[in-house]
Write a structure and sequence with these properties.
With 101 residues, the protein is an alpha+beta fold. It contains 3 helices and 5 strands. The chain has one domain. The radius of gyration is 13 Å and the shape is globular. The termini are far apart.
Length: 101
Amino acid sequence: MAKQVWIGLFGLTIPEKNEVLEGCDYAYVNALSVAISKEEFISKVKLSCQKLQFLVDEIEDVEPFSQRIKNYKTNADMYQLAEQAKSKNEVMFGTFHGSEG
């Protein structure tokens, strides 16, 4: 199986002392990365979240990016993140949507 860009929506619990999303208890974010499988993609995103001190709570809508753009209108930012994920071979995050309590 060839590597491809994957995308998924991740729900994150934010510890109190997190400076990245200060004041938020919870956040949702689209993540993109190159992977061979859904399992590898999820594993890479979880590791990146752990490095940022986020706890992955929910995972939704994981699929190859090529499938996403066939089925849904996708904004230009996601295309840019997909290209960056491919060229840098890193996990890329979209806009974090945070909430309190």
